[in-house]
Amino acid sequence: MERFVVALPDLFVHRMRELLGPEAEDFFEALRRPRSRGLRVNTLRTRPDALARRSPFSLAPVPWAPEGFLYHHPDRPGLHPWYDAGVYYIQEPAAMAAAVLLAPQPGEWVLDLAAAPGGKSSHLAARMENRGLLVANEPHPRRCRVLAQNLERLGVTNALITQEQPEALLRFAGLFDRVLLDAPCTGESMFRKDPSVTEAWSLRRITRNAERGQHILSVAADFVRPGGRLLYATCTFAPEENEQVIARFLRERRDFHLVPAELPGSSPGRPEWADGNEELSRCCRLWPHRTPADGHFYALLERAEDARPQGAGRGQTGPRIGRSLKTSRLPDRAAAAIRRQLPEISLPALWEQRGDTWIALPEDLPRLGSLDGVRIMAKGVAWGAVRGATFLPAHSLAMSLPFEESPRAITWPANTPEVVEWLKGRSLPAPPGAEPGWVRVGVDGFPLGWGKISAGQLKNHYPKGLRRDLSTDRELDDPEDGGANGQSGSL
């Protein structure tokens, strides 16, 4: 078996020996083995069983996530065109448990407070079936752009992407059915993935992140409606950042209680590592020596039904919500221009106009209230620009519409050179007899973007920032860095 040498800090080793006792050697042995690698099927594109039947990779199911699969080298799903088509997301198996435990339902309002790079947010949207409202917040500008790109690639249509510190969103307190807090942490479960995390580890960092997590958790709680749920998540083993944070929160917020969080292979929280409150055993730990995961901690909290809302409440008016968001009616000329290109597509009801570009908004977004003063990265889906009688479709529209609904489409098998050339940004010869105009381009029936047929050429309109050479690109590693958000200072 391939083995890895992980230079663990001496103090970390001592701490884990004291915490785990006889189990410690199994834990350290797990850290010497290759880390688990996973991909999560995007159910907005296809069913997990359908992908498993067609997959060119060797896959094994993730025990706690029906959408999740384990893969192993030499398979390289990050260099397969299905990745670019948003068919799946490369994600560490433990991170897939967040949406499973929070269990959002179609039509609900969900808030992800530290959403980049988008793995957990896109999983929430898929579980919501793109219905309801997903507010995906990321304070760091660069990470927020990555979040927006990933949600676009995966076909998420019900998201409002904000770039704020949590406190700046408190005008929306008391409105959300589900809230996810991927808290800042020392990221001890990432030691096998990133040596810099090991080098940065210290007791001082544990203490600082525990304090930050405690503060952000107190803010996150105010967004939850009475009867709603809040999931606190970290990717670290330190009790100071896990059980001890939850123990203090339960002492301070009597309107919340822990809901049992159980997953196949998981271990309960450890009350003895905090204040002894037996309720902490309802927390969930995923250990690398017990599960095919790097490690995570989850605490699922529910707010009492009779709790007093912090805000005005959904659907009501009040100083925290303010006036309604302005929306635009799609003019007849714009609707006609779009229908000429997409005659079989039903047009959404709510729109925002930005110059000559029309953006379809999530149906529940106006009920959220005024967004004045909130930094918005994206909302809904940009359909494209209408210039006179001409419609110039946007890339986000190509990625959000079901491919089979396109009246004009070209799709190639994944193993053909046309796909490789297309992702490089190269134009190709048009199919014989093809009529001029816009066509959707895809791989194996999944969307890649738009092309335009003109003068016998299929002109490439794949965005320049997304183009890559599958034969030379570096394999994508798991971009889902969980609670290590704290490492990059995003909260």
What does this molecule look like?
With 491 residues, the chain is α+β, with helices and mostly antiparallel strands. The chain has helices at residues 10-20, 24-31, 48-54, 81-84, 97-102, 119-127, 141-153, 195-200, 203-221, 243-252, 332-341, 365-368, 395-400, 417-424, 485-488, and strands at 37-41, 60-62, 65-71, 88-90, 109-112, 133-137, 159-162, 176-182, 224-234, 256-259, 267-268, 284-286, 296-303, 351-354, 357-360, 376-379, 381-387, 390-393, 409-412, 428-429, 437-443, 446-454, 457-460. Mean pLDDT is 91; it is low at 315-323 and 481-489.
- How far do the termini sit from each other? 39 Å
- What does the largest sheet look like? 10 strands, mixed
| Continuous helix count | 15
Mean pLDDT: 91
Helix amount: 25-40%
Which runs of at least 5 residues are low in confidence (pLDDT < 50)?
315-323, 481-489
Radius of gyration (Å)? 23 Å
Give the CA-based shape: globular
Approximately how much beta-strand content do the residues carry? 15-25%
Helix and strand content put the structural class at alpha+beta
Task: Count all strands and give the number.
Answer: 23
